[in-house]
Amino acid sequence: MRPLTRSADITIESFLSEADERSLANDVLDGLTRPFKEIPPKHFYDARGSELFERICELPEYYPTRAERAILLARADGIVRRTGAGELVELGSGSAEKARILLGAMARAGTLRRYVPLDVSESALEAAAHELVDEFDGLEVRGVIGDFERHLGHVPATGNTPRIVALLGGTIGNFLPGTRRRRLREIGRLLGPRDRLLLGTDLVKDPAVIEAAYDDAEGVTAEFNRNVLHVINRELEADFSPSGFDHIAFFDRRHEWVEMRLRSQRPCTVLVGDLGLRVDFAAGEELRTEISAKFTRARVEEDFRAAGLTLDAWYTDPDELFALSLAARR
Ligand code: AVJ
Questions:
Q1: Which residues pair with 250 in a beta bridge?
Q2: pTM for this structure?
Q3: CA distance 127 to 146
Q4: Beta strand pairing call for 268-272 and 163-167
Q5: Which atom of ligand 1 lies nearest, measured to the CA of 258?
Q6: At 51, phi and psi to the nearest 5?
Q7: Gap from CA of 63 to ligand 1 centroid (Å)
Q8: What is the best residue among 248, 290, 324 to mutate for testing ligand 1's pocket, by most ligand atoms within 8 Å of CB?
Q9: Residue nearest to atom 8 of ligand 1 (CA)
Q10: Phi and psi for 312 in degrees, rounded to 5?
Q11: Is the pLDDT of residue 1 over 60?
């Protein structure tokens, strides 16, 4: 643990270690030596990947960010009234744009006390913390630099003020069903009896709408997808040729999730220098880079139930593109 910033209102601590830097190496070693190659989506997000993702959020085809924001704007006051929350714990806080809406509602209700962002990006967390303490009088920020798959134990315990633990943006959809329920159960352990989980989930809809959101006309998502190859090249001394891979995105109706893949145009051999690994791709062979699950209310309720949680409130936008759920520990 390394205290990075300490001012009157801001404390930021890092829990990233050498073990975490091995995470990409381990995932590449496991994922590229399987019969069906796969790299987990968390490795998209270096500085360039995060920038590309921000651009995706503004694309006309990519509806989830706007839909979720519309729900938050319409419902934040109601959510705060219903929960009495004065603390927000946000898992994967990024630029804290959504937090601002919830913190604003807490300020209006007169309950606002503390914001606990958890994110892997130190720079994003620092910047957000300073902006928010300037904006909200008396706000305390307790930042945790880490990964919510590994560092939930460093989130401070719940106190006297009811809190909202938020996992927004549809991030939960990146996990396969079993892992998803495990993550939800772990997150549930952060909840006291009066606390609530606020979960953002993209909803099942016309596959054409979903597929367009993951294969935009401008090609930003394609570049975002290929970015994982740039990350592997740089971090592990690999020699992928990103332009030799086509961007694939399709809605799997049976599993109700979007898959993104990278398809090798030609047979090729990739060397991953740091791992002493040689990986062969056949012509047309695909590497899975992301699943993004789409939900129905029933599916969310089943996942909560299996994770020791229970649905308390369900909010959607008028077009039912996206949903926010409040859940309590059972
Ligand atoms: C950040 C995981 C919610 O799944 O929609 C956007 C990532 N991938 N376009 C999503 C993403 C392709 C996004 N999440």
A1: 259
A2: 0.96
A3: 16
A4: unpaired
A5: 4
A6: -65, -45
A7: 11
A8: 290
A9: 214
A10: -115, -35
A11: no
